[in-house]
């Protein structure tokens, strides 16, 4: 068997990189500082590697990775748009990068947090935002804990959350983290939430709220949205908006005006901050007026004299992580919103929708599309291709053509789900290349399915055995 | 300014192919009464203005010449190659490596991170990061509940106040009871009804605990209860006995290799004993081989623990983590190597000790730690306001007033000394302390 060398294989016996400052004070006997029994006895099992070898090792690894900069990255529900380079510069300005979270002279940082919160309020139609959550999932937890606190403070017992079957897996997982159990409602033939079933569930009286993504995970905008939120409110529930799919509607419609009480956003999706190979992201949470007092601490608020930082004043859900969240990510999102401004926000949304519909209409004669109508930023394909070729095979066929695959096997309501989201930053040439690749793969499924099933061939490595990895976990060297 | 590439003509052609007349037609599903009339945001800015605007905003924050402040966020020297490597665009513009065949770079790097942290901590298994130490500790408490099915955890005094509050928030969500106790009550408090004991070492006040002895107490009193150790600054592991040698069940820590950046992003390290591997939250990368070939490669694995498969039965909702910061932490640790890591830890021990000894010689100052300390310690001061003002006058970021977290402790400070504090900085600081005492 062959495998690439690890960085640990590139060590030497005696290399000293000169990174740390020289020790410029007199040492005392270490045993007088730390008794022997608390000291590390064995040598640290870490190599000493010369600087140049480290750089070469990771630059070569980076080459074996596909990013948005490599080409279209149509990963549904992830909004893999271009990451503007100015954002990387602004987040690294010394006045942002080198400031300590507990220093008092932090006026610029606090102002940025406040301003970004205000911008997000305007875009989403909410009254206040916390920017503390580190990722979308932590934003969801924050939002659901706010629902829990809301009812707890009122002394009302409600222990269920409604989640459609098309929801992101985080929605049910999060609800349980806040002590709720789940009522799952099956989407109708249009991919929308059936109102009669919603009303039936709400009538039970024990439902605290509804978690909904709109446009939903099949890529369509639920046309009954105002009726949905009305029904939930009628029975005393709260409406939670999963903002993973905000990109196609920003500047067009505001979740707050659809009737949502709480919303989380993914700044790394809608607001262009890089996905970083899986983070860091940021998951701000917005709420309507009545829920502001439950937001996690600390918060920045406006007072007469300017801005102030406030801690828990009794009704907050508490702290959900240390300090102010992934501040560097906030700087990037703020830069992006300032760049786009009024018109740019709307234009980004419109073109995300344009690109997705363009792809859909150019492949619909070959690929089954279960909810085939004007979609938003993404659409769902049921990739049952001829001769048993499935969505994983299509994905690998795309990799062979130098293109990243869409999200596959999500949402769970379609067996061979393939969720395609091109984003607004792809040009027509790139979209056409993607369309052509999908049509070619279809043809290959008809003529030479075996080839597709054993792919990919042109990648650094062939199809990997995921079952083996799980059966015999090998998680470190 | 926006980043949309199409010109009007292209948009027209695409609309025609879709079969609609204009962009608004794409929004026919949205009820008209909901569509917004105006968005109250300023016009977009060109890049040159953005840079000016953000630079001005950043300059409203003061950057100090040097710092004696830590308390959960530490200044260390970060080698230049760290930022250079995390700025490789194929790392930072990629996402979670779902398509393993074109993501081997990220996957191998994360595997190396999992390996490097496991090597340094001597713990069996490390996951692909949590958000920060606070939330990692909270998830560790939840893990203890999943493993033992018991709904109570004990927190030993001395854990960072922000970590304690985070644990309380998460535990409230899952109806897990929390109790904060002094270390000397541990013996009496452990029963088989306790899911886990949470301790920080070095703790918030700087004290290094005898974790091995605490593990003995925990494991001899109960065969269920887990010992969970938290750490704010893992550079100490260059010289300090690692958690894996102290029978710790779950280890969590803040990461290394990032600038403070007002507290984030950094990352949460989470390492466990092998027997708890399948109860870990978060992503894990594993080694496997090709289905139809002989090459070895890496994939996301043990996903049956996670939300996208298990939904409401998942161990946590975490998915995106702090991947790029993992690479930063990894490159930082590899850059230092065993030699550099030992050196950094030794310098922190020695320099902090130097300041500690010097202050203890000045009349009016009293070191309050009775246990060994790493790069932080607490001091009772004769005139705290004067000390802090003088630090600022000399462009030194002053130590933390303990009253920030403990309102009653008005005359105590938490001082942090690291390798970045030069001899001159230290002399100046001691001089300020002398002056402030007069």
Describe what this molecule looks like in 3D.
The complex is a heterodimer of chains A (477) and B (438). Chain A has 477 residues and is of the alpha/beta class. Chain A has 3 domains: 7-63, no CATH class; 85-339, Aspartate Aminotransferase, domain 2 (3-Layer(aba) Sandwich); 342-468, Aspartate Aminotransferase, domain 1. Chain A is built from 16 helices and 12 strands. Chain B has helices spanning 8-18, 47-58, 80-86, 89-92, 104-121, 133-148, 161-173, 186-189, 211-221, 307-310, 323-360, 384-393, 423-437; strands spanning 66-67, 125-126, 152-156, 177-181, 196-200, 226-231, 250-254, 268-272, 285-289, 296-300, 366-367, 376-380, 396-397, 400-401, 412-416. Chain B is globular. Chain B folds into 2 domains: 66-74 and 337-437, Aspartate Aminotransferase, domain 1, CATH 3.90.1150; 80-332, 3-Layer(aba) Sandwich (Aspartate Aminotransferase, domain 2). Chain B is built from 13 helices and 15 strands. Chains A and B meet through helix 2, helix 3, helix 4, helix 5 and helix 6 of A and helix 1, helix 2, helix 3, helix 4 and helix 5 of B.
Task: Provide a short characterization of the protein structure.
The complex is a heterodimer of chains A (477) and B (438). By secondary structure, chain A is an alpha/beta fold. Chain A has helices at 30-33, 51-63, 85-91, 94-97, 107-124, 136-154, 170-177, 195-203, 225-234, 255-258, 267-270, 327-363, 391-400, 428-447, 449-453, 466-471, and strands at residues 128-130, 160-164, 181-185, 207-212, 238-243, 262-265, 285-287, 299-303, 306-310, 379-382, 407-408, 417-420.
Look at the helices and sheets of chain B and give the structural class: alpha/beta
- Order of strands, main sheet of chain B, comes to 2-8-7-6-5-3-4
CATH class of the largest domain in chain B: Alpha Beta
CATH H level, superfamily name of the largest domain in chain B: Type I PLP-dependent aspartate aminotransferase-like (Major domain)
Low-confidence segments of chain A: none
Give the CATH H-level superfamily of the largest domain in chain A: Type I PLP-dependent aspartate aminotransferase-like (Major domain)
Number of helices of chain A: 16
Largest sheet of chain B: 7 strands, mixed
CATH topology of the largest domain in chain B: the name is Aspartate Aminotransferase, domain 2
The strand count of chain B comes to 15
Q: Give the strand order of the largest sheet of chain A, numbering strands 1, 2, ... along the chain.
A: 1-7-6-5-4-2-3
Number of helical runs of chain B? 13
Shape of chain A: globular
Oligomeric assembly:
heterodimer
Helix/strand-derived category of chain A reads: alpha/beta
> Which sequence of SSEs, written as H and E, runs from N to C of chain A?
HHHHHEHEHEHEHEHEHEEEHEHEEHHH
Distance between the termini of chain A: 15 Å
For the biggest sheet of chain A, the summary is: 7 strands, mixed
Ends distance of chain B? 58 Å
**Biggest interface in this structure?**
A-B, 204 and 204 residues
């Amino acid at each position: 068997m062959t495998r690439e060398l690890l960085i640990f294989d590139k060590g030497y016996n005696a290399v000293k990189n000169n990174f740390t400052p020289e020790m410029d004070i007199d040492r005392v006997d270490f045993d007088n500082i730390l008794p022997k029994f608390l000291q590390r006895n064995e040598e640290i099992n870490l190599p000493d590697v010369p600087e140049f070898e480290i750089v070469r090792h990771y630059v070569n690894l980076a080459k074996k990775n596909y990013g948005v900069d490599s080409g279209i990255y149509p990963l549904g529900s992830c909004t893999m748009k271009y990451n503007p380079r100015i954002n990387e510069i602004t987040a690294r300005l010394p006045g942002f990068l080198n400031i300590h979270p507990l220093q008092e002279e932090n006026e610029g940082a606090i102002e940025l947090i406040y301003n970004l919160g205000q911008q997000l309020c305007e875009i989403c139609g909410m009254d206040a935002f916390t920017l503390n959550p580190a990722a979308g999932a932590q934003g969801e937890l924050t939002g659901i804990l706010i629902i829990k606190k809301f009812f707890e403070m009122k002394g009302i017992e409600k222990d269920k959350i409604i989640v459609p079957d098309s929801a992101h897996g985080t929605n049910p997982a999060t609800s349980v983290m806040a002590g709720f159990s789940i009522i799952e409602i099956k989407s109708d033939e249009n991919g929308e939430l059936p109102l009669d079933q919603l009303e039936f569930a709400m009538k039970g009286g024990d439902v605290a709220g509804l978690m909904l993504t709109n446009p939903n995970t099949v890529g369509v905008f639920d046309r009954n949205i105002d009726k949905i939120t009305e029904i939930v409110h009628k029975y005393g529930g709260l409406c939670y908006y999963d903002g993973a799919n905000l990109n196609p509607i920003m500047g067009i419609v505001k979740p707050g005006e659809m009737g949502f009480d709480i919303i989380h956003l993914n700044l790394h999706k809608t607001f262009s901050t890089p996905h970083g190979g899986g983070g860091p992201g940021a998951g701000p949470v917005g709420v309507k007026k009545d829920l502001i007092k439950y937001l996690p601490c600390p918060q920045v608020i406006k007072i007469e004299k300017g801005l102030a930082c406030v801690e828990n004043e009794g009704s907050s859900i508490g702290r959900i992580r240390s300090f102010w969240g992934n501040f560097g990510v906030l700087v990037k999102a703020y830069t992006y919103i300032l760049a786009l401004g009024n018109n740019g926000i709307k234009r980004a949304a419109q073109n995300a929708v344009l690109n997705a519909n363009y792809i859909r209409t150019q492949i619909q004669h070959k690929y089954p599309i279960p909810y085939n109508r004007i979609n938003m930023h993404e659409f769902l394909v049921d990739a049952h291709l001829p001769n048993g070729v499935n969505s994983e095979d299509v994905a690998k066929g795309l990799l062979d053509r130098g293109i990243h695959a869409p999200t596959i096997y999500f949402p769970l309501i379609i067996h061979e789900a393939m969720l395609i989201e091109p984003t607004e930053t792809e040009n027509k040439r790139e979209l056409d290349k993607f369309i052509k690749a999908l049509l070619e793969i279809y043809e290959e499924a008809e003529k030479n399915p075996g080839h597709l099933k054993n792919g990919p061939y042109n990648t650094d490595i062939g199809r990997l055995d995921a079952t083996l990895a799980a059966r015999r976990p090998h998680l470190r060297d | 300014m926006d980043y949309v590439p199409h010109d009007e003509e292209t948009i027209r052609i695409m609309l025609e192919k879709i079969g609609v007349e204009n962009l608004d037609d794409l929004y026919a599903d949205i009820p008209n009464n909901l569509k917004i009339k105006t968005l109250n945001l300023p016009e977009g800015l060109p890049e040159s203005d953005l840079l000016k605007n953000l630079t001005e905003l950043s300059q409203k924050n003061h950057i100090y010449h040097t710092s004696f402040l830590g308390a959960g966020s530490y200044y260390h020297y970060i080698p230049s190659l760290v930022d250079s490597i995390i700025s490789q665009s194929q790392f930072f513009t990629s996402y979670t490596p779902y398509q393993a065949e074109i993501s081997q770079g990220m996957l191998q790097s994360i595997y190396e991170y999992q390996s490097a942290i496991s090597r340094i901590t001597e713990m069996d298994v490390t996951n692909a990061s949590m958000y920060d130490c606070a939330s990692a500790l909270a998830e560790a408490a939840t893990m203890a509940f999943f493993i033992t099915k018991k709904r109570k955890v004990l927190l030993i005094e001395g854990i960072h106040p922000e970590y304690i509050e985070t644990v309380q928030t998460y535990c409230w969500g899952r109806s897990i009871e929390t109790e904060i106790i002094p270390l000397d009550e541990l013996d009496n408090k452990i029963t088989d009804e306790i899911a886990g004991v949470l301790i920080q070492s070095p703790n918030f006040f700087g004290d290094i605990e005898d974790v091995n002895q605490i593990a003995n107490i925990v494991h001899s009193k109960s065969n269920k209860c887990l010992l969970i150790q938290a750490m704010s600054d893992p550079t100490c592991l260059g010289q300090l006995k690692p958690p894996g040698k102290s029978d710790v069940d779950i280890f969590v820590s803040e990461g290394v290799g990032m600038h403070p950046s007002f507290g984030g992003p950094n990352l949460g390290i989470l390492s466990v004993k092998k027997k708890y591997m399948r109860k870990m939250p978060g992503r894990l990368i594993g080694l496997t081989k090709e289905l139809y070939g002989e090459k070895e490669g890496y994939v996301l694995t043990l996903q049956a623990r996670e939300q996208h498969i298990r939904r409401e039965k998942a161990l946590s909702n975490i998915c995106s983590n702090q991947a790029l910061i993992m690479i930063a932490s990894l490159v930082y640790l590899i850059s230092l190597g065993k030699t550099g890591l030992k050196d950094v830890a030794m310098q922190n021990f020695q320099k902090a000790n130097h300041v500690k000894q010097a202050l203890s010689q000045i009349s009016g100052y009293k070191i309050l730690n009775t246990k060994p300390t790493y790069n932080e310690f607490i001091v009772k001061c004769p005139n705290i306001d004067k000390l802090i003002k003088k630090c600022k006058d000399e462009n030194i970021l002053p130590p933390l007033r303990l009253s920030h977290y403990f309102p009653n402790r008005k005359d105590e400070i938490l001082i942090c000394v690291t390798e970045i504090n030069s001899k001159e900085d230290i002399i100046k600081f001691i001089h300020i302390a002398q002056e402030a005492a007069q």
